[in-house]
C-alpha cells in the first residue's frame, strides 16, 4: 500500500516480499554503525523483522516504517516512517538509506514528507527523533526538517546516550 508520494519517491508499506532488501539494508555499514546490529542474517530473519516490526505496527497503529523507493525505477533505497516505541512518550520519525543513496537529498525528501503526513494526516502534535551522538548526518537532516535538539536520553535496557530531537506542530 502506497502511503506517501513525493517528486522522486514512493513510501509504501513493507511486506515479506521485501526481505532481500531489508537483509541488505540492516547489514549496510551505516546501519550497523549508527542503528546497531539487529541480528538479521538470512531472508527468513528479514521476513520476521518485517512481520514483527513494521507490519505489526501497521495493524496496531496504522503507521510504521515504510519502504522508500525511487518512483520511476521502483528501486528500494531505504526506509522512512513513524514509530511508536514503548520507551518514548511520543511518536518518533526514523529513517535509514543504503550507503549508495545517501547524500542525494532522498532522506530530506522522505523525512519532510513523513513529518507532513504525521501532522496533516495522523494529527500528531509532537514528533520526536533519536540519533546516536556521533551521527552528524542524521542530526543535520533532523534540523533541516525543522526539528530541534532537546536533550540526551538513554532508552531502557540500553547504555548509549542518544540525542533527542523534537518538533512541536505549529497547529497547536
TrEMBL record:
Tagged with keyword Membrane: no
Top-level taxon in the UniProt lineage: Bacteria
Entry keyword Ribonucleoprotein: no
Alphabetized UniProt keyword annotations: Transferase
Signal sequence extent: none
Matches recorded under Pfam families: Acetyltransf_3 (PF13302)
Residue ranges of domain N-acetyltransferase in the record: 9-165
Any one GO MF annotation of this record: acyltransferase activity, transferring groups other than amino-acyl groups
Entry protein name: RimJ/RimL family protein N-acetyltransferase
Organism: Scopulibacillus darangshiensis
Amino acid at each position: 500500500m502506497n502511503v506517501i508520494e513525493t517528486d522522486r519517491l514512493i513510501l509504501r508499506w513493507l511486506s515479506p516480499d521485501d526481505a532481500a532488501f531489508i537483509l541488505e539494508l540492516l547489514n549496510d555499514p551505516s546501519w550497523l554503525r549508527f542503528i546497531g546490529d539487529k541480528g538479521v542474517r538470512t531472508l527468513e530473519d528479514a521476513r520476521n523483522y518485517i512481520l514483527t516490526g513494521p507490519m505489526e505496527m501497521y495493524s496496531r497503529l496504522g503507521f510504521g516504517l515504510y519502504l522508500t523507493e525511487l518512483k520511476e525505477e521502483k528501486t528500494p533505497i531505504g526506509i522512512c516512517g513513524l514509530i511508536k516505541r514503548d520507551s518514548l512518550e511520543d511518536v518518533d520519525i526514523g529513517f535509514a538509506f543504503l550507503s549508495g543513496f545517501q547524500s542525494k537529498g532522498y532522506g530530506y525528501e522522505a523525512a519532510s514528507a513523513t513529518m507532513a503526513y504525521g501532522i496533516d494526516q495522523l494529527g500528531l502534535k509532537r514528533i520526536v527523533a533519536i540519533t546516536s551522538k556521533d551521527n552528524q548526518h542524521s542530526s543535520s537532516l533532523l534540523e533541516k526538517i525543522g526539528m530541534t535538539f532537546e536533550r540526551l536520553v538513554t532508552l531502557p535496557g540500553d547504555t548509549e546516550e542518544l540525542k533527542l530531537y523534537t518538533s512541536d506542530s505549529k497547529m497547536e
